[in-house]
Amino acid sequence: xxxxxxxxxxxxxxxxxxxxxxxxQEELKAEDSLKVLNLNLPTKTIQILDTITTQxxxxxxxxxxxxxxxxxxxxxxxxDQAIARTSDSLWMKELYDSSRFEEVYGSIVNEVVDPxxxxxxxxxxxxxxxxxxxxxxxxxxxxxxxxxRIIKHYLKNRRSSMAKLMALSDYYFPMFEQELDKxxxxxxxxxxxxxxxxxxxVAKSRVGAxxxxxxxxxxxxxxxxxxxxxxxxxxxxxxxxEAAAKYLKSLHKSFDDWDLALAAxxxxxxxxxxxxRRSGGETNYWKIRNRLPRETAGYVPAFLATMYIFEYAxxxxxxxxxxxxxxxxxxxxxxxxxxTFEQVAKVVNLPVEEVQFLNPSYKLGIIPYIKEKNYTLxxxxxxxxxxxxxxxxxxDFAQEENSKEDANLPKYVEQPDRIRYRVKSGxxxxxxxxxxxxxxxxxxxxNGLKSNKLKVGQxxxxxxxxxxxxxTKTSIAKTTxxxxxxxxxVKNGDSLWSISQKYPGVTxxxxxxxxxxxxxxxxxxxxxxxxxx
Length: 533
Known about the structure:
Elements: H1 2-30, E1 35-37, H2 43-58, E2 74-76, H3 82-95, H4 99-109, H5 123-135, H6 145-157, H7 159-182, H8 190-197, H9 217-222, H10 237-255, H11 258-267, H12 269-278, H13 285-288, H14 294-311, E3 330-334, E4 339-340, H15 341-348, H16 352-358, E5 366-367, E6 376-380, H17 381-389, H18 391-402, E7 419-422, H19 429-436, H20 440-447, E8 459-462, H21 470-481, E9 484-489, H22 496-500, H23 508-515, E10 527-532
Antiparallel strand pairs: 1-2, 3-6, 4-5, 7-8, 9-10
Helix pairs in contact: 2-18, 4-8, 6-14, 7-10, 8-14, 10-11, 11-12, 11-14, 15-16
């Protein structure tokens, strides 16, 4: 055991040594490949960012460097392979594709019924592997035809999505395992997040459950997860995992059985208790399964099928193409002033999509500064070094940007889980959806609406993605009267950042507020309102 730990330490040491060497070489190369951009920024901003850039390219943050560049220009280290950067962007888009969540969720609700042939996995071999798996996990991994059908369905019809999930798991699983181990819970619970959210930290179900572990607002609050206009901690990988560990621990204490604890996590302990009563006191999940809600009936088999495929990934030819970031190669810093993802991306020279990927709990791409609240920024370790060394200059730059008249930063407001909206004269679904940052289809689903027709006085249940106070509606009304509106049609490869760059003075935050969206995900063909001027 001691030798194994020494070996692990040695491997980590070599990894950091390698990263440090590559980083130093790239930074020194950058000195010869600076590009000058004429962005017409204020002199003070140029001085701030000149300081950050010249210190960064020196390779030594403690050695002063004389900057001889013109005050009318701003310098960034922008040397990169355009093709490689495009590939990175497409990779991030693939991994962050929300369609995975719908695919996983749909497979649970609509359980596979028909037998499926899959020659690579004979029934006898599957039985042998499940028995082996059962021997080292506290979960009840027994062979049954229903479980076999689901496993074979995943192997045959979901190979592409499973490979993407494995790539994401390389980043998220170390975080999960750390929190689960801290609470002395089975590490296999990490596979539950695959079933819950397809490892999408901003996944949102039709009833408003959010995040990697799909917490409803009220349950999240019970376990310390905050939701406000800027922040949804249900999307924070570490904080939500800790909350999930506490919740699962309490459920296991109630039922003394992990299968039942998982069922209760999905449908609530009340439904599991009722199923036990209706079955005459049975406590075996498979014996009470037909008395549970349909979704829960498919939930535990989906978990066990996922566990099997991940545990036997190599045998089935799955290979992770690896994450862009490894959790061990990232670090966090507590922010001391309000700062946006765009500002962070600019000063540490990262694509804004990567900052978003590492910090999914900030809904509007803004990290707020609120007294007595510890909001953190996660970045790759080499970027953290740049940020810490130039902290004051970075915050001065952010403050100057945020004080501009067109910054249009929303007010920080605590957010309710659910509201009951009363339809007024002149209301229509698109208008209501824009105000609350949700989709028309979501409002229809939440309220069982079959058409877009509304009646004055009708009550609608809405799970808002952004809080509304009296100033919010006013700001939306003012925004829509400024300048001319243009409808932009999203194309393949577009991101909010790339679209904002097409229009002078327009930011990612502007586009989000104008269109009532809370994440960076776009679909080709989507129409976005852009207010010029």
